[in-house]
Design goal:
By secondary structure, this protein is an alpha+beta fold. The protein folds into 2 domains: about 40 residues; about 170 residues, Beta Barrel (Lipocalin), CATH 2.40.128.110. About 25% of the residues lie in helices and about 45% in strands. It is built from 3 helices and 9 strands; from the N terminus they run H-E-E-E-E-H-E-E-E-E-H-E. The chain has an 8-stranded antiparallel β-barrel.
Length: about 210
Amino acid sequence: MKKLLKPALGLALVATIVACGAPADKANDTASDSTDATTEKVEEITEKTVAVKLDESNVLWTGQILGGLKSHNGTLKIADGSLDMSGTAIVGGKFTIDMKSINPTDSNYTADQTAADLVGHLSTGDFFLVDSFPTASFVIRSADMTAKTLTGDLTVRGTTKEETIKDLNVDLTDGSAIGSLTFNRQDYGVTFDTGAKDFVLSDDIELTIKLKM
């Protein structure tokens, strides 16, 4: 009986060790998984303010007569600007437009009405009164990268109103942010003194804003 008892006790001891060891291994596996999850690299979102490259940035403008019978377009220079970035998204910023840099680029002119004549007229009180208001500006108050919009305060001729830049395209590879903004000139006092002349002009002034970072 003693000889039979020893093997039986040995088997029981082995079974006990195996039974006790199984939960421990499972616990070790769980701890290992938890450690891996903890040490997994988390991508950091970088927040920074970047300056706008003035020599590579501009605003394209278009104004036209009602019915689209005639239009003029051209460029304006950016005087200064910066964009607040959170990762790849714009979250704030501002830029200033040099209103004395009006430069027509279309060809709708005659010997009696030249591009220089248009610049002179746009610079007067009938339009932007650039001697008194040499700059315009846009300050970003909110951004929606999903809707591709930037909403903020546009200031023209000393008047500030909320406007929205739409169709925003941010390309960090190219380092550019491009969007469009259309505003009603009447809201900013950009009007002829004589109603007849003012009536034939479209109230909408269309802008395409290109900012290089």
